[in-house]
Amino acid sequence: MSNYCHLCGRPLAQGLSIHVHPEHPDHQLAVCGHCHKTAPRCRRCGLPMRADMSTGANCALCAAGAPRCRSCGSPVTGSYVEINGLGPYCRTCHETRQHCSVCGVPLDARARYLPDGRAICATCQQTAVLEAGQAKSLFDWTVQAIQTALSLGLRVGVRFVVTDHPGLRAQIQKARPDLIYEADRLLGVYVREDPHRTIYVENGLPSILLIQVVAHEWAHAWQMENCPTPQEMLIVEGFAEWVAYKVLQEMGAVKKMGLMAARPDLYGEGLRLMLAREERKGIPGVLALCLARAQPDKAQTPAP
Question: Which domains, and CATH codes, for the chain?
Fold first, then answer.
């Protein structure tokens, strides 16, 4: 054991304290009485430390073993944020940085900025659909997947239009003015203006999210042709989410399916209602519920 304080370097005298790191028992500090009382403490392990050798509010050992913020790269040793299972992100980045317009994570230097002001994180960029031709191919694939999985089809086809955020917002305001306050959160909308029926989807979405949005809006087109109106929103949105869920199931997109089913809002509640119905009565039972004028017993809705 050293005869000198590991922090200030003075000879050890009365008041000697020995500190052992809780996660590294071989790391021991001999500390004089003065440093024991006055030295800053690591926020994570509680050991005294030299301020000039610490990393933020933590000692070097704790900082080295801590996870790193996915945005700034700094050690995360205190509270942190996870967004849809992605993280950790430090509180500073979460509160001060612009967030990805798709997944909501704090952005870093790799962000891509679109002409309408939206920004996409590096992860979402990997599969972002920015070309109209690619988007149309995914639209066609999604429609075929719905027909294969659920045997659903439209008597009158729909047009497919990819637009930027202001363009989508304008269509929402025109077709569904009641949803204008939610327009910044919506990624697609089905618009019926005789003789045209059109699905509008925001550009720049990752491919799997684009497929999900297309399936959801296509389901609304099917509802407009086949289901009674007006109908409870729990059924309207729950069925559309269920159609999208079934398409993702065809793809094996288990993580995305889990996020959909865990949503605490109307969309998640409606999806859970449809999944419970499917478990009891199969796909025909879900379709029968949506085609009937009777409303569901809300007591049957599974808890979130």
Answer: 17-65 (no CATH), 80-125 (no CATH), 132-300 (1.10.390.10)
